[in-house]
Structure formats: structure tokens, C-alpha cells
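Lecture notes, unit on binding sites. The following record was shown on slide 14. It pairs a sequence with magnesium ion.
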Amino acid sequence: MSEETLSNLSREDRSFEPPAELAASANVTAEAYERASSDREAFWAEAAERLDWSQTWDRVLDWDDPPFAKWFTGGTLNAAYNCVDRHVEAGNGDRVALHWVGEPADDKRTITYADLQAEVCRAANALLALGVEAGDRVAIYMPMLPETVVAMLACARIGAPHTVVFGGFSSDALATRLVDCEAKVVVTADGGYRRGAPSALKPAVDEARTKASGDGFDVEHVLVVRRTGQDVDWDDDVDVWWHEAVDGASSEHEAQPFDAEHPLYVMYTSGTTGKPKGILHTTGGYLTGTSYTHHAVFDLKPETDVYWCTADVGWVTGHSYMVYGPLANGATQVMYEGTPDSPHRGRWWEIIQDYGVTIFYTAPTAIRTFMKQGREIPDGFDLSSLRLLGSVGESINPEAYMWYREVIGGERCPIVDTWWQTETGQIMISPLPGVTAGKPGSAMTPLPGISVDVVNDDGESVPHGSGGYLVVKEPWPAMLRTLWGDDDRFKETYWSRFRKQGFYFAGDGAKLDDDGDIWLLGRVDDVMNVSGHRLSTTEIESALVSHPKVAEAAVVGAADETTGQAVCAFVILRDSAGDGGDDIVEELRRHVQKEIGAIAKPRQIMVVPELPKTRSGKIMRRLLKDVAEHREVGDVTTLADSTVMDLISKKEGSGSGDDEG
Ligand code: ATP
Ligand code: MG
């Protein structure tokens, strides 16, 4: 075996130049890369100047005590002022900030920046009246409502770090986070609408509060938005209605500046690889990193664009690219409460048509679901307003990229495949839509001001055409500052693998193609070792998805007596393929062999109705590995649908699709 850390199996030759019109008026041009590499700190200082500071910083970056970074030290600012008030003061109070769309048809609200300012001030005053002070933590456990954004901004305004907990999480998950963060107040709703029905939230808060008390921690107040009108249990000492506390509060509140390093929020990772980690983000660097990258990567023109990021606000994407980045940039955006298939499977496309969405940002898991259902559904809507598409969360398989480009983007929209993490806070690797060509499946190059590399076991750069570990070599403004309350775990998790070199190691494998462009290859923990070849999950999955009958695939390595590990694949077929036919397993094995070589040919392929995914939609390969190795399935607490593993295990038990050879 060569010294490559990861074999480079697949070849992809397609490439799309940036559209000429977009390139001609792009927010950021090729010159930014040079400027950033000649003086990185000056580059980020200039990006920081796009914000309004009460006090300018003394020092751009303090990296005296790595890995603990401080950005813009001595500077002070208010995050909510930057996201709201300054747009009103600039004369844009009438601009729509949020086109909110509820799941029930005709349930809509339009919120201008002036409306948002008044509401955030009221909510800030209400939180202060409940005794919340700067530095206190507030948990937000909400559906996708305007009040959710208002609550986040109100916290930021008074310097109370928020921790948003995804509304689909159980009371246990909520309780753990309440205790870990010691949240003084919880903001929630009676419920929200999902899949056509009201779904209660308040009971989970009540349970979580009881659990937290059992652990010796008491939440002081619960602020409850009335959304569905469901019956709720009420504790007069603790529970407060939002419409009573907030609607009656003053809409005047003067935002105080906070230190650039004042904590803005704690966000727990999605838990794809294990127990979620509490990531701490602070104020000045985070706002700089998210607003600059949102401006650069999405080429936002705030006067004319309608931007829509479909991520739930319970994930970092909702924080960086629905709340802080876009609002700091004065964007007009769509926010949707419900699921893509309610009341019909074309709901998203209908929203794009109705609001004239121009920039659309979603996840590969959603794109593959739409591929499975067939293009007739989006084809029934007018998507001609779109001018730019984005992808985040996992590698986008080349076939899904092509479908997204052709069916949704009408072959005219560039796609930005954005690689980043809860930890990085901001997009790190992505094409710039007016500069970089797009290759299906590649996140392309690090953004200006970001220093990323692919290295071998010894931390040396791998040559073009080879794979290895993805590392970040220099600090960046929106980087995590630590894990909440656990500096040691922070150092150990991210900074120990390449301690000598001082690199941040993200956990992901990647390869450089012959042009030096970056292809993400999945988690290094998932890398398979087959007869001495180290194979990535992503490339084999992409080969499977390139078969016309396949919509989604997940690949894991299972122990094998002869080869060490063997490739085991789980696939979901497209609706149009029916059951795939009698030969489907052999057909797919041959297809992988033809696409990338005999070494990658799966030993076993199982056709399954669903794959195990986290609540943010990422495939959880470690659970499939348990199935492939006939073990009891491990920790499923972050799994979106716990019945999925039963379905898959049953299939495995019946031996269906199993094929030795
Ligand atoms: P945990 O760290 O708790 O296991 P997680 O890593 O899934 O959860 P996130 O921070 O939400 O939590 O996800 C970041 C990860 O998502 C990245 O490390 C990478 O593996 C994957 N990812 C995100 N965007 C892309 C992309 N454009 N291409 C490939 N992978 C991506
Ligand atoms: Mg992670």
C-alpha cells in the first residue's frame, strides 16, 4: 500500500464555470484570496469593519495561549443591534426581514426590520423583568416561529448566552442540556405544527424541568408562546405566557455593547459520531465570520434577494445562516415552520414560487429524498426566480448535485457546496459563486482568510491526487472558543491529533484532486481497511447513488476473515425503480466495480426502506456497522426515528439481499 492515508478511487470530470452575469457583479472576486493570503489578520479586520462596533478592537487576534483564541480584543459591540437596529437606522425599517410561513396553509406573517426591532426590544425587556442578567443562560426549545428568532436576538441583546435545543428532541435530551448549561429560563411554545398536526412541546419542558430538579438544578421560569392552543399544564410560580410578558413590555430598549469575546451561545453538535459536545461561540469574531461568509458565498444583494435556508434553528446552520449571518447583512428571508411534504410533497417548491426565492440553501439528505420521489413534483412549480443554490451537512454525491443543478437550478444556478461544522461556526471550504468553477461532489477550496490542508499521519501535506486528514492550520474568527465548561475535552478532541503542528483536526477525511481542489471523504473513523487499502465511505456511496435505480446509500466496513474488513452497503431505491428487480444486488455490485474498481465492490448490499439519520438528517454509519457486524445496536439517542433500526435489523435477520462472493 502506498503512503496515502486514503485511497483515491473516483474520477469526476464535469465542471461548471460561474455564470457570467453573476461573476460580473459578484460581491467577492478573486482578488480577495490574494489579499487574505498576504495579510490574513488585516483581511479579517476589514471583514469586521462591515459590522458596527461601539469600541474598535486593540488587537485583531490574540493567539498567545493556543488553542484558546481571542479575536478583536478590546472591541465591544452588540450582536442584536448589528442584526436589527442598524438596518432600521439606515432607513431600511420597511424591508421585510422574515417571510414566515406556517405549516397550515394560509398561515403567514410578514415581519419587517422595524417590526423585528420592536419585538426584540419587548422580549429583551421581558427577559430582564424575569431576572435574566448578562451572562445568564437561556434555553430555547421552540418550533420554527418568528418568536424563536426574536428570543435568540433578545438574549444576544442583553448578553445572555442562549442554547437552542432542537424542538424534536426528547425531554431527556433537553434536561441534559438544561443542567449542563444551567439555564435560568426556558423559552418554549405550547406546540408547533409538523406533518399536518399540532405537536406538543410544553409537556417535554415540564418533564425536563422535573428531571433537572432531580439532578439538583432548578429552572426559574418558562416563557411560553401560544402557537397551537393545545391544553398545557401550568405552574404559576414558573410558567409565564409570552403574550402576557412580551406583548405588554416596552418596545424601547437601548442595546448595551459587550466585549467581543462575550459568550453569544452554546450549541450542541448533532451527535452523528457520539455524545453531543457543547460548542461555545462568542460575539465579535462569530458575527464577523458568519456575516462575511454569508455575503461572499451566497452573494447576497439585500435589496433584491429573497434568501431561504431550510435548516432548523436548532442546528448551527440555523444560527449562522438563518439568524446571525443573514440578519447582520440585512437579508430578506423565508422561514418555514413545517416539513417539506405537508400538506403535499411540493410544499418547498410552492414556497419558492410564491415568494420568488432567489437563493436556496439546503442539505443533501433533502435533495436525495426529492430525487427518490421523482422530478415531476418540482417540475410542477415555477422555480425561475432561483439564481444560486447551496448545500451543507454531508458530501453531496455527484449524482445528487447534478439533479439539484438540473431540476431545481434549471442548469443556470451555481451550487455552493459548503463544508463547515458546529465547531467552525462559519463556512470554511466552498466555491465563491462568481469566481470558482463547481465540480459535482467537491467543496473546492478554502475561503479567503481560511487556511486548510489535507495531511498524512505525520501532519505533512499530501500531494495532489491523494487523500488524508482535513486540518485547519490557522485560527479563524468564528472558531469555537472551547467546549462549555470543559477546556480539557476541547484540547483533547480537536487539538491533540496534530499537537506538534498546532493544527485543528476536524475528524473528516478528504482528498485533493489533480487541481488541488478538496473532496470530503467522510469521517476518518468510518474509513474502511479492505485488504490493506484504506477506502472512504463517500466515494463508494456516490458510486451507488450514480446508479439510476438508487436514491441514497450508506456504506460501512464490517469485519471480514479474509480481507480484514469488507464493504457493506445499505441502499434506498428510487420510487420509479419499484423493488429493483431480482438481480438488483448483483447489478449494484457490478456497477460499483465498474465505476471505481474491484477493491470497492461491496461484499453485501441490503435494500432498505430508510436509513438511520440524526435529527439534522445525517446518516449514522456507526449504527449500520453494528448491524453489519451482527452486534446489538449502540446508542440511538440522537436518532431521528428509532423504528428505522428495527426495520433494518429485521431485514438483516431475514438475510434478504445478503450476497457473499
Ligand atoms: P458530532 O460531532 O456530534 O458527531 P456532527 O459532526 O454531525 O456531530 P455537525 O457539526 O452538525 O455535527 O456536522 C459537521 C460535520 O458535517 C462535518 O465534520 C462533516 O463531517 C459534515 N459536513 C458538513 N458539511 C459538509 C460538506 N459540505 N461536505 C461534506 N461533509 C460535510
Ligand atoms: Mg462533528
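Take-home: Confidence is low (pLDDT under 50) at residues 655-661.
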